[in-house]
Specification:
The structure holds two protein chains of two kinds. By secondary structure, chain A is an all-beta fold. Helices cover 0% and strands 48% of the residues of chain A. In chain A, strands 2, 4, 5, 6, 9, 10 and 11 form a seven-stranded mixed beta sheet that branches. Chain B is 0% helix and 60% strand. In chain B, strand 7 and strand 8 form a beta hairpin. At the A-B interface, strand 4, strand 5 and strand 10 of A face strand 4, strand 5, strand 9 and strand 10 of B.
């Protein structure tokens, strides 16, 4: 069964460093998302991406964050200058094209990347 | 602004019991609702998706219902097993993005 994959599974970085989190969405999916979950808190939406551009972003997704689909398979989240409060589990998700009157399709999540900023 | 709440926050039951997890949301203008399972330190596994036009969905021992007008969904787990122990999250789809509740931590005792 197709699945979303993410690398690395765990990333430790020092405050102020840049990190890139990588995701390979399911191959025929067209919508891509990043979410994060700070330990003990809710899963929060960060950004959605469709047709090579951001379609929506949350207040969390400030200028320190960027997303890119550099080729036909990868989807990346970059944090330019990490802060202690960026420590969280980051999840990538993907789904197929909008289903019209039937509504959106199911989102499939990757296993996550645990980011620890020291 | 859409808010999603799950009750109870934690639940402990003996093996074999049937149980219900609750999810409520403040804005009924949703596209669909998904229930997920999350094991400690792990990712999110999708269990069921209910389209906004549907009332319920079933998968094995799981049954999820949706009442859009009252802003509620329930996840019914029949004949619970210790392997069902996990955190269960509900999320509503609003213009594509998912908005999550804080989850119900379920413990099924042998």
């Amino acid at each position: 069964e197709p699945e979303v994959t993410q690398t690395p599974s765990h990333q430790v970085t020092q405050m102020g460093q840049e990190v890139i989190l990588r995701c390979v969405p399911i191959s025929n999916h067209l919508y891509f998302y990043w979410y994060r979950q700070i330990l003990g808190q809710k899963v929060e939406f960060l950004v959605s991406f469709y047709n090579n551009e951001i379609s929506e972003k949350s207040e969390i997704f400030d200028d320190q964050f960027s997303v890119e689909r550099p080729d036909g398979s990868n989807f990346t989240l970059k944090i330019r200058s990490t802060k202690l409060e960026d420590s969280a589990m980051y999840f990538c998700a993907s789904r197929t094209k909008r289903g019209g009157l039937a509504g959106d399709y199911e989102q499939y999540f990757g296993p996550g990347t645990r980011l620890t900023v020291t | 602004k859409q808010e999603v709440t799950q009750i109870p926050a934690a639940l402990s039951v003996p093996e074999g019991e049937n149980l219900v997890l609750n999810c409520s949301f403040t804005d009924s203008a949703i596209y669909n609702l998904q229930w997920f399972r999350q094991d400690p330190g792990k990712g999110l596994t999708s269990l069921l998706l209910i389209q906004s036009s549907q009332r319920e969905q079933t998968s094995g021992r799981l049954n999820a219902s949706l009442d859009k007008s009252s802003g509620r969904s329930t996840l019914y787990i029949a004949a619970s097993q210790p392997g069902d122990s996990a955190t269960y999250l509900c999320a509503v789809s609003s213009r594509g993005k998912l908005i999550f509740g804080q989850g119900t931590e379920l413990s099924v005792k042998p």
